[in-house]
From TrEMBL:
Belongs to the Glu/Leu/Phe/Val dehydrogenases family. The active site is at K80 (proton donor/acceptor). SUPFAM superfamilies: Aminoacid dehydrogenase-like, N-terminal domain, NAD(P)-binding Rossmann-fold domains. One of its GO terms (molecular function) is oxidoreductase activity, acting on the CH-NH2 group of donors, NAD or NADP as acceptor. NAD(+) binds at G180, V181, G182, K183, V184, G185. One of its GO terms (biological process) is amino acid metabolic process. The keyword NAD applies. Keywords: NAD, Nucleotide-binding, Oxidoreductase. This is Glutamate dehydrogenase/leucine dehydrogenase. Residues 144-353 form the Glutamate/phenylalanine/leucine/valine/L-tryptophan dehydrogenase C-terminal domain. It comes from the Bacteria. The keyword NAD applies.
Amino acid sequence: MTDGVFGRDGGHEQVVYCQDPQTGLKAIIAVHSTALGPALGGTRFYPYASEQDALNDVLALSRGMSYKNALAGLDLGGGKAVIIGDPATVKSEALLRAYGRFVETLGGRYITACDVGTYVADMDVVARETRYVTGRSRDDGGAGDSSVLTAYGVFQGMRASAEHVWGTPELRGRRVGVAGVGKVGHLLVGHLVEAGAEVVVTDVSEAAIDRVRSAHPSVEVVADTDTLVASDIDVYAPCALGGALNDATVEVLRAKVVCGAANNQLAHPGVEKLLDERGILFAPDYLVNSGGVIMVSDELHGFQYERAHRKVSALYETTKKVFALAEEEGVPPATAADRLAERRMAEVSRLRSILTR
């Protein structure tokens, strides 16, 4: 991974701590880059063990959004926000509106949307206090649930991965392991079942498992992610929280392809090389899971589902382009994806120096 202003080690432009004792709001907003435009990224609502854990997460997630938006061809920079707390117990209208007011103070440098622990209805509440929010309900003029096109984009990335490894994008008969069948994962399972894949899943939530079993009785369920990773699968799809791929995981992983919806799947730099050395194709997470941000960004121009769907369908070709560059330059796909994103950020940022009236 390259260094420098547009490299992975480049600093963030702005980090803002937000606190409102009356509502219990404790949040951090991180703007990584506005080289391509306003920083767009979702709001994660999660019971972090410490403020430092929350900071580490928002810094990594916002950095990833810069790369995701760049590689998706959007004129948007990267940002992210985290709200510290258990959304099941502390989320309220007042807290979300207080958060919206903090977003408004940034004057459009950061545009928020949904993420883990926040939903379309929450964004409708946040929008009562700020103009800089997307991922809203259709009743309020928004795009609706972005999980729909996130899952579809991962499916397209998986098809491109299958073509690269097995010579055909068909997934019929392939055994695919999905870890996490929440907002995105259960929709991905639907695409896979329809495509004729054999699907095995796991999730810490019994309710999530029951929903998948009810919709797709043919799906197999295993006890935990460790069991899934070590099982006889062709494709591994991490669709829960980040850090799913570490040294131990790669050592026992039997799949030939890793392609999932989770953000920041590589637990630390160097894991991408371990995957490459073992002959496991890694579809960069921020590439294949960008369908959601493509969908909510379309909302900024007056949402049209057909237009957004076409853009997400193009992730199939973009994924193939990343694999081709990786082979051409002799680097893992994660490095190739970084290079493509960094080149676009640098080139467009340079153009912004040309003064216009």
